[in-house]
Amino acid sequence: QVQLVESGGGLVQAGGSLRLSCAASGRTCSSYVIGWFRQAPGKEREFVAAIGWAGTSATYADSVKGRFAISRDNANNTVYLQMNSLKPEDTAIYYCAADVPPLGPVGVGTAGRYNYWGQGTQVTVSS
Questions:
Q1: CA distances for 37 relative to 3, 51, 75, 102, 127, angstroms
Q2: Contact between 121 and 101 (Cβ < 8 Å)
Q3: Strands annotated E in the chain
Q4: Which of 46, 61, 97, 101 is at 20 to 30 A from 40, Cα to Cα?
Q5: Apex CA 34: angle with CA 16 and CA 5, to 5°?
Q6: HSE-up (13 A, CA, CB side) for residue 70
């Protein structure tokens, strides 16, 4: 079992930055693939970024490439999502998710492939 707790959301102006954290607990959580997803009102949950257990393999949605960066600190069981140049369309609830690798190149971007989820943190970007 893995428990995930997100933090770091808030209200920011367009062009600003936020850093989200996903704190994981569980015996083998450092070996899990961690993904970030987001869900805006009235929309489906969408993939944002994912990172492998070693922290050397990162995948991003096209909409956030060059603006967001995912990283992990296995010593502290925490995954970060640094979000820069935020846009109003980035407004959503952001969730972190985890599962046992390998997820595959398609699986890492598929919400249904992850079995463990946090409660989410709200990010609001004002124009």
A1: 16, 12, 23, 18, 22
A2: no
A3: 3-7, 10-13, 18-25, 33-39, 46-51, 58-60, 68-73, 78-83, 92-99, 116-117, 121-126
A4: 101
A5: 70
A6: 25
Which parts of the chain sit beneath pLDDT 50?
none
Q: Count other C-beta atoms under 10 Å from residue 59's C-beta.
A: 18
Contact (Cβ atoms closer than 8 angstroms) between residue 126 and residue 34: no
Q: Copy the structure tokens of residue 56.
A: 């050397």
Pairing mode of beta strands 3-7, 18-25: antiparallel
The whole-angstrom separation of Cα 40 and Cα 53 is 28
